[in-house]
Amino acid sequence: MTISNLQKARYSYNPKLPGMLRNGISEICVKEGAPTESVADQEKIKALFPNTYGKNEITFQKGVNTSKPKKQVVGVILSGGQAPGGHNVICGLYDALKATDKDNVLLGFKGGPSG
After folding, report:
1. DSSP-assigned beta bridge partners for residue 101
2. 36 and 11 in one domain?
3. Residue 102 pLDDT more than 70?
4. Which domain holds residue 97?
5. What are phi and psi of 4, to 5 degrees?
6. Is the predicted pLDDT of residue 28 greater than 70, yes or no?
7. Which residues lie below 8 Å from residue 112, measured CB to CB, with a gap of 6+?
8. What's the CA gap between 98 and 48, in Å, rounded?
9. Residue from 64, 49, 3, 55 nearest 32 by CA
């Protein structure tokens, strides 16, 4: 099988990881922030998203992961059109989930938001 120079370059590419991810996800902790709020039409948006509106902002930072291990089921939804880099994000998420617990599950949705 003949491989093009472009494909050889793709195979040899090694993406740069952010410093926080270089030692795996065991050194990442969750920081809970202030409740979220929309810029305008708070009541309308709260009515549209009653289960999520006003939840605290969540960020990640370097530190000791103190959360208890548990099986996670994560769903990924893209816009339904082409998503440059989407494959890499999904592969990275899958690898991280499986590294944390082999029983974790990653789900996808055909058809984007309408799927």
Report:
1. none
2. yes
3. yes
4. 68-115
5. -70, 160
6. yes
7. 77, 78, 79, 80, 81
8. 34
9. 55
CA 53 to CA 50: how far, in whole Å? Answer: 6
**Number of structural domains, the chain?**
2
- Same domain? For 73 and 105 the reply is yes
Same domain, 60 and 95: no
In this structure, the answer to whether residues 114 and 76 fall within a common structural domain is: yes
Q: Are 66 and 32 in contact (CB under 8 A)?
A: no
Q: What is the pTM (predicted TM-score) of this model?
A: 0.53
Among 30, 45, 64, give the residue marking a domain's end: 64
DSSP states along the chain: ----HHHHHHHH--PPPPGGGTT-GGGEEEEEEEEP--SS-HHHHHHH-TTTTTPEEEEEEES---PPP---EEEE---SS--TTHHHHHHHHHHHHHHH-TT-EEEE-TTGGG-
* Mean of pLDDT values over 23-44: 86
* 52 and 28 co-located in one domain: yes
Give the pairing of strands 73-76 and 56-62: unpaired
* Nearest-angstrom CA–CA distance, 30 and 67: 9
